[in-house]
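batch job 7 of whatever, protein = DUF4286 family protein
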Amino acid sequence: MIIYNVTIKIDKEVENDWYKYMITQHIPDVMSTGKFKEYRLSKVMVDDDEGTNYSIQYLCSDMKTLEDYQNNHAEPLQEEHTERYRDKFVAFRTLLEVVDHNSKI
């Protein structure tokens, strides 16, 4: 399993609008591509006077599926987000490979 993680710092002045947009439009659009099994939207627990940090984790079955998303779907979705929140956010993306799941330590 692959986790496609997008971490975003959003300016506090647009945070409420951004959150509503993510829940009602952006994340449903990403999920409607059929490339991801589920997602998690989390608030990063750090003090930051400049903005609020969030992590959106999209889970997909394998790299081939993720590459298909990146090659055929990601660009217009990212452009729409960038256009809407132009200079109000910073984002970076990371890939994680799940190597163990539901283990009891």
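notes: The first strand starts at residue 2 and ends at 10.
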